[in-house]
Amino acid sequence: MTLIYKTIDVGSIAAGATEEGNWTSDDNYTLKYIIAVEATDATLSNVTATMRIDNFTFTKDSVPLSIFQRPVNQQLELNYELSKGKTFYYSITNNTGSGVTVFLVLVLELAE
């Protein structure tokens, strides 16, 4: 199993603001995990997100981003196909009273 780490720099999100973005897969992967990181190690419990791959929205409604902020050995295993040309989309809303700086790390398993 070959794991690849793709970091998406969402950037600074002001209080009450929403940032959206995407990344298009450059190879055939399985999305194993998503790890959310806040630059100052602040909690992301009042920051919500929706995420999808093309038309498959796997968060259904917005979820606290903190569910993806767990230690690696406690992460939720996703196992979503993210083949070449498919696009991962995110929308992140900061519901806190101050800005946050967010990185999303996609843990990808390279198809062999």
Distance between the termini: 8 Å
Helix content: under 10%
User: Would you list the SSEs in sequence order as H and E?
Assistant: EEEEEEEEE
Rounded to the nearest angstrom, the radius of gyration is 14 Å
What is the number of strand segments? 9
Global geometry: globular
Task: List low-pLDDT spans.
Answer: none
In the CATH hierarchy, what is the architecture at level 2?
A: Sandwich
How many helices? 0
Largest sheet: 5 strands, antiparallel
CATH class, please?
Answer: Mainly Beta
Strand content: over 45%
What structural category characterises the helix and strand content? mainly beta
Q: Please give the domain count.
A: 1
Mean pLDDT: 95
What is the CATH topology?
Answer: Jelly Rolls
Keywords for this structure?
112 residues; mainly beta; Jelly Rolls; 5-stranded antiparallel beta sheet; 4-stranded antiparallel beta sheet
What does this structure look like?
The chain starts with a strand and ends with a strand. Strands 2, 4, 5, 6 and 8 form a five-stranded antiparallel sheet that branches. It contains no helices and nine strands. The chain has 112 residues and is mainly beta. It has one domain (3-110): Sandwich (Jelly Rolls). The mean pLDDT is 95. It is globular. Strand 4 (47-53) and strand 5 (56-57) form a beta hairpin.
